[in-house]
Design a protein that fits this description.
The structure holds two protein chains of two kinds. Chain A has three domains: 8-117, no CATH class; 129-208, Pdz3 Domain (Roll), CATH 2.30.42.10; 227-320, Pdz3 Domain (Roll). Chain A is 24% helix and 23% strand. Chain A is built from eight helices and 14 strands. In chain A, strands 10-11-12-13-14 form a five-stranded antiparallel β-sheet, with no helix packed on it. The longest helix of chain A has 18 residues, at 53-70. The radius of gyration of chain A is 24 Å and the shape is globular. Chain B has helices at residues 2-21, 24-31, 38-48; one strand at 52-57. By secondary structure, chain B is mainly alpha-helical. Chain B is 65% helix and 10% strand. Chain B is built from three helices and one strand; from the N terminus they run αααβ. The chains are: A alpha+beta, B mainly alpha. The interface between A and B is medium-sized, with 31 and 27 residues. β2 (24-29) of chain A pairs antiparallel with β1 of chain B.
Chain lengths: 323, 60
Amino acid sequence: MRVRLLRIQQYDLNVFEFDWDLTWAVFFMHPDGKVLGRYGGRDASGADSRNSLVGLRYAMEAAIHTHAARAEEPAPKARKPFLIGQVPTAKRMTGGGCIHCHQIKEILRAQDKEQGTWDRDKLWTYPLPENVGIRFEKDRENVVETIEKSSSADRIGLKPGDVVEKIHGLDVRSCADVQYAFHKAPVAGEIAVGWKRDGKLLEGKLVVAAGWKKTNITWRPSMLDLLPALTVYGDDLTAEEKQALGLGAAQLAFRQKDPVHSRAQAMGVRAGDVILGVDDEKLNLTVDGFLGYMRRNYLVGDRVILRLIRDGKRLDLPVKLSN
Amino acid sequence: MRRTLFFAVLASFTFAATSFAQTAASRMAPGKGWLNDLERGKALAAKTGKPLMVVIRCDP
């Protein structure tokens, strides 16, 4: 039975809990409302980066199997529905009009800020399996393709070909399932994982440290207002110019062009300054790479030290990032 | 005659408003075997013993 929903505000977000930055998501459900599985998910490289028709079929067949096995189970308990339109900040932000999925995150973030419950860790949602060192196959999204050496996954003995069946107590058959399970997992500590190898069930606990959920958020429409724009620009120095300044050949170094953006002027940047980066990070990047790096690694409101060379002398400028 | 013309104009506006309220994608869905009503989908799924595939697509 196929159902297509176009207006999220009518539906219970306790049930339809997914990465609301996505423009497309699939739920496989029992008629009693129990979620049997999910499909979808993406990363910053593109909307279809994690999806394929073969993968959809794989997840669908798993859901049909789960549905058949679940027929005798009791229906889930009814809960009070969570409708986004009932959140006070929703009315103010949308005027009672149509709410797009990504606006759910904006509405909830605004509510958190009003209530003083917002913290930066809440930005890192739906982490990718690569965050713990697992790369899954694209067409069988719970089958391990590669394991990063010395990663959390490597330490518990996961290997290519293993079929991961549970993460944090939740069944996983797709990238969306995996991201959902990691989303629900703790921000630091242990995450239980169960997998099959040669028909044998194996278990282990991933150990994750604070910050493990951090991913590239530059594709997320709900977070565009949080991405900083460092308004400096210019041409990368040549290898000879870098050598003359005692810099490595690959090290970031570019000359600020004229005219200087008004915000960069306010930061203290002048035309001709050679910009070397921020804080104590030694970056092997071009100017374009550096501007992307800033959007991937910092947020509006963060304070950094802009390192530069002016008239042959090193200079540090304290900067509060904005967009 | 005037009354007929009035109702004809009213009907055409109503039709146009209904058409614009839905995008091409949402109009197409029922024609391709998709339901736009979750509760109806659940009822039909329960009746036929099948699971549901619910697609959430932000309709621009």
